[in-house]
């Protein structure tokens, strides 16, 4: 069997070349703080920063290096997308709720872009716009109507791109048109995390790396949190562990399924080839259940492509081959291209595929970002902190809702993922065969 290293030169994230994740200096454990936060990714740091600037003492605990999980392993696309499309949301919840969800996505993206500017975080952010491809003309019609609704009702800069104009956005004939959204861009996720960590530490938050929380227990009006370094008392607890949730929070672990997302990066490509394949250097995705997401690297020299990984143990080669085949299906001229990096990380899925914050037994949770954490994690981390502070906000969050439903017969090990991924692949093949192309 071909080893992953024979397909890609490195099995570590491309992003770690410029912004490696590192442990923080060991610090003494405080006896008591106002808030304990689990998880030092985007959500936990955003919450800690908001709390500290409001005068609260905060200790954040991470079982790994800060940012070593999804925060430095993702594709760096600021989509804020919701896995159920607008048409599905409308059918399931009604147009009012669907529009509220999309409107919050707009606010979340605007918050992120303003935050990067205000805090001086240099993470190669560019508001490039994004293109989403349709498999057939019938799918294109549904997507075009949704784009028209969002443009008219919410003022989002989005519009349909007919097949005849597609080559001006992406150098492939695989799709039959698509939709462009100009409020989406790309950034360097590890640099973003490093900048967020910097400003959070400067605000006075204590961040403990390689210090897993093992238990959370009620203690009077507050909590006793047990960590690998000892126990700490807190008035409030916020959990932001997402795809790396473990046994410390069994209630959440039964509701969030960790699903691997795999990414590959090509060798640098000739400039004229990049100009032809990605003429606008936009972020890219497609309307398949197992759809790929892809983009140019920040230097514009290579293509990064990601998708779901059906494995849940080891580092098998099959998911890498699937991405390679997907890339060449889109761009046949890349059939002989080499790859510099291939890696995976966990995203957190739940049964309705909606991010959310919720409270259970006095503990607040901000989690379940379903593969769109670049936007949703810092936004919901901040909103959760505002809730802990008792702040009044202009508009309630559409994601402040009940906990997600538990997944039957699941307690941390996603044994059923290969079957689900295979089922999605079959549905995609059927959809493609039936699409009016």
TrEMBL record:
Which parts form a coiled-coil structure per UniProt?
Answer: none
The record's annotation in Pfam families points to: DAO
Q: Which SUPFAM superfamilies match?
A: FAD/NAD(P)-binding domain
Q: Which residues form the FAD dependent oxidoreductase domain?
A: 34-387
For this UniProt record, the keywords arranged alphabetically read as follows: Oxidoreductase
Output the Gene Ontology terms for molecular function: oxidoreductase activity
The family database entries (InterPro entries) matched by this protein are listed as: FAD-dep_OxRdtase, FAD/NAD-bd_sf
Cellular component GO terms held in the UniProt record: cytoplasm
Database matches in PANTHER family: FAD DEPENDENT OXIDOREDUCTASE DOMAIN-CONTAINING PROTEIN, SARCOSINE DEHYDROGENASE-RELATED
- What name is this protein filed under? Glycine/D-amino acid oxidase
Q: Which organism is it from?
A: Paracoccus tibetensis
